């Protein structure tokens, strides 16, 4: 078995697909008109896929790149420059961007599959996970070539690489893109910020040219990744003392958490809980001098835009989520592995408890990283004539 091709399918692939050169197992196809990418995930997971999406678009610049995703993808990516040309919203499919025990409407799934087969994809890239559920689903879509990752026991695609955890997700997805002959292109930034993003950010928080803007992001959808609110407050106070304008961001459901952080600060801070749509957050991140955050979607948006960040990580998540530009990230890492309630090692399987696994990261560590980064950024952001350029929007 060579180039990741499944036994019994190699002859079929060689007969029906014309290649445009390249290393064996990663040849580019000729006549590619349409590429489907299966990636119905959350914000951070989408950001992890951006280098691979850029690579596919560079390899096949004339092809339409269609993301098979979620409703939020459709709204966020509409009119946004980048590698994705179109989003098709998927129904909920158990194990494919939805929990394995999720309720699925089989008729809706069958209708979706029929529509996707009618799209006549040349390539379908499975970028969801190890393929237990997603590989059979990708194969149903009827493309000329299927590529993706394969965990032990999962169905084989035409070309596949081993699914390994933990591992850097950006690099793993680039390895999948390379199965179709794609290579990482040079990028000034992975995610473009639009005029509408900047306008929304300016409406919510007008630019302040007198102070560098620092965002705090104390929430996360995973309680194990949440650093205590009072420690975010302490870091916010240190940054405010150093001259920063501090704003605390959160989703609508995190209003209480954001208020708790602000109430714990001696200095005033701006409450942004529920105030920004995802695009507006991108506009504000572009304008920010730095972000201090848990390992969550806004952290990875900041890094994709090019905004430096201090991130609080559980150690295996840093392996998964490390950016391709390491100079942008200062990571404070927890080495805790066992739940303090039941003693189970959560690297092997997740226990039912919702305690934080990053509690051992100290205020001093994050404060030191944030102040060092603020000082470095302020030095770089002042123009030669003494006019501050931070806060420009």
TrEMBL record:
Domain of life of the organism encoding this protein: Bacteria
Region described as Disordered: spans on this chain: 1-22
Protein name according to UniProt: Glycosyltransferase family 9 protein
PANTHER family named in the record: ADP-HEPTOSE--LPS HEPTOSYLTRANSFERASE 2, TETRAACYLDISACCHARIDE 4'-KINASE-RELATED
Key words, A-Z: Glycosyltransferase, Transferase
The UniProt record lists the keyword Glycosyltransferase: yes
Claim: Glycosyltransferase is one of the keywords in the record: yes
Organism field: Massilia agri
Entry-linked CDD domains: GT9_LPS_heptosyltransferase
Segments traversing the membrane: none
